């Protein structure tokens, strides 16, 4: 099939990063993946949730939101309507993924609160949020060392995510909205820097799909995520 931006089936959208996009955050990255733009900011708090008090262990949590004009038609602010089930699902996914990056015991009694705000949405917002938030979290950890909040930088496991789908019978990498909205199969893959999977979300939109097709999707996702891990080296 011909993709609207003339990408190959295994082609990624252009990716760019703007570090310190929020100067008051302890770490921040504005990530652009094609038409999807997400602002990821990290705040370090000198406290932990009640279930961790007295343990010396830290915590990482995330919140996700979409600005009203991020999509083709204005969405209502969740501050007025309350968070949707989709929002809770996505921010829990982000939080689970980011907690894989470090040994929480090395954070001391600190909570790293990550905010992912979608400025413009064109498919793959949760994947862009995870990829950008992981880089912002690394920056926040570096600053914790600079401020002597922790004695040294913990071992950091890179994390990134990408979408894969089946559109018109073809497996495609990094779907934009026009592709995602008519995909027969839709999946999101989260991977650690050592090649292990962290989480996979996969759904058949029409009919069930064969294990062989899932294997093709996983291989394509791994290829795309390896490209995203170059952002860590850059």
From TrEMBL:
Reactions catalysed: tRNA(n+1) + phosphate = tRNA(n) + a ribonucleoside 5'-diphosphate
Protein family per UniProt: Belongs to the RNase PH family.
BP terms from Gene Ontology: rRNA 3'-end processing; rRNA catabolic process; tRNA processing
Binding-site list for phosphate: 86, 124-126
Function: Phosphorolytic 3'-5' exoribonuclease that plays an important role in tRNA 3'-end maturation. Removes nucleotide residues following the 3'-CCA terminus of tRNAs; can also add nucleotides to the ends of RNA molecules by using nucleoside diphosphates as substrates, but this may not be physiologically important. Probably plays a role in initiation of 16S rRNA degradation (leading to ribosome degradation) during starvation.
Protein name, UniProt field: Ribonuclease PH
Self-association and partners: Homohexameric ring arranged as a trimer of dimers.
InterPro entries: ExoRNase_PH_dom1 (IPR001247), ExoRNase_PH_dom2 (IPR015847), ExoRNase_PH_dom2_sf (IPR036345), PNPase/RNase_PH_dom_sf (IPR027408), Ribosomal_Su5_D2-typ_SF (IPR020568), RNase_PH (IPR050080), RNase_PH_bac-type (IPR002381), RNase_PH_CS (IPR018336)
GO molecular function: 3'-5'-RNA exonuclease activity; tRNA binding; tRNA nucleotidyltransferase activity
KW Cell membrane (keyword) present: no
Annotated ranges, domain Exoribonuclease phosphorolytic: 12-139, 158-223
Pfam family, one: RNase_PH_C
Enzyme Commission no: 2.7.7.56
Keywords from the named record: Nucleotidyltransferase, RNA-binding, rRNA processing, Transferase, tRNA processing, tRNA-binding
Matching PROSITE patterns: RIBONUCLEASE_PH (PS01277)
Source lineage: Bacteria, Pseudomonadati, Thermodesulfobacteriota, Desulfobulbia, Desulfobulbales
């Amino acid at each position: 099939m011909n993709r609207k931006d003339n990408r190959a089936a295994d082609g990624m959208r252009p990716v760019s990063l703007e570090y310190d996009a929020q100067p008051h955050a302890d770490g921040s990255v504005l990530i652009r993946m094609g038409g999807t733009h997400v602002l990821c900011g990290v705040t370090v708090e000198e406290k932990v949730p009640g279930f961790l008090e007295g343990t010396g262990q830290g915590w990482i949590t995330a919140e996700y939101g979409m600005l009203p004009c991020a999509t083709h038609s204005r969405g209502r602010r969740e501050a007025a309507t309350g968070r949707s089930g989709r929002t809770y699902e996505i921010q829990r996914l982000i939080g689970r993924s980011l907690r894989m990056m470090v040994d929480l015991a090395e954070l001391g009694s600190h909570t790293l609160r990550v905010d992912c705000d979608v400025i413009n949405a064109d498919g793959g917002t949760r994947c862009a949020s995870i990829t950008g938030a992981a880089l912002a979290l690394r920056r926040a950890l570096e600053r914790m060392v600079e401020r002597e909040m922790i004695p040294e930088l913990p071992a950091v496991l890179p994390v990134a995510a990408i979408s894969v789908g089946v559109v018109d019978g073809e497996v495609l990498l990094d779907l934009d909205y026009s592709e995602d909205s008519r995909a027969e199969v839709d999946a999101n893959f989260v991977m650690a820097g050592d090649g292990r999977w962290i989480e996979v979300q996969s759904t058949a939109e029409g009919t069930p799909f064969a294990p062989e097709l899932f294997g093709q999707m996983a291989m394509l996702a791994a290829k795309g995520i390896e490209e995203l891990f170059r952002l860590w080296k850059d």
